[in-house]
Amino acid sequence: MPHNILVVQTAFIGDVILTIPLIKAVKKKFSGSKLSVLVIPQSAELLKNNPYVDEVITYDKRGQEKSLNSFFQLVNRIKQSKFDLALVPHRSYRSSFLVFLSKIPERIGFDKNQASFFLTKKIVYQKNWHEIDRNLSLIESDGLSVEEKYPELFPTPEDFGKVERFLAENKINADDVLIAIAPGSTWATKRWIEAGFAKVADWLIQKEKMKVVFTGSREDEQLMNSIYNLMEVKPVNACGKLSLLESAALLSKCKLLLANDTAPVHMAVAMKTPVVEIYGSTVPAFGFYPYGDGHLIIEKNLPCRPCGIHGHQKCPLGHFKCMKEISPEEVYQAVTKKLTEF
User: Fold this and answer.
1) Can you give the pTM of this predicted structure?
2) Measured between alpha carbons, how far is 125 from 123 in angstroms, rounded to an integer?
């Protein structure tokens, strides 16, 4: 039995959330072991207060530690920790090379990996599975059956307290129906049109008498300002004002999240909040749709979709039909229909 385990997931925030069920399953299988997780600094907070994580190691691969020298410093640090098992759901050359150079004797990852030859055990990458189920297959291959598959986040009472004060300051009461909208995405072709979000938010406020809060990071502030200026009734803007776990606490208080194919979707699932998700250049078949039942997906069936696993900064064909052909009326009807199910 391994005594010192490393899980490597240095991709994006959403990927870390989708790795949490694997982390929990590993800790339950090897309850006496120490479990460490390697993530980028922006994702570290997601593992705060997680009872299944003993140590969080950060690697700022896109920032201060992007140099080759920093990489080998990390190798030495990992080597000194004497891990005996590495699980590598992140399918990257650097992640597999890292655990190989760190001389971790057992290294498990996917066969669909440009550096899978650095692994000691390669698991078949099931392209039609959800990412959570794919990640869990890294240990289920040993015959372990995992039943608790939903991601979990652990905001503190202080996180909830800050959110409650934020909502009170913005005149949102406990009996208000609160809808969250996350309009952002790193990739432009994964973002629905600004005028669409503005129109749907206006209708929810004016017609349905609901409260709407926009959520996202500081990087979404310019996008939020554009949507804000298009609206007739001003919503609550939480973009850049809450930490990751505070944002999770906020989503737990919302009746529903409307979002693109982006990290807040998985955060909402972790907090048991239903999702209406809009797909553009990517597709649910990639396996990153909201996990479980009770969610709704909006997409257009076009021959040019998907045009990339991550999306692009502009439509490769120049027309952006995948998002422009999704009307505000269609999204509004989907949201109100989903709300009638509660």
Assistant:
1) 0.95
2) 6
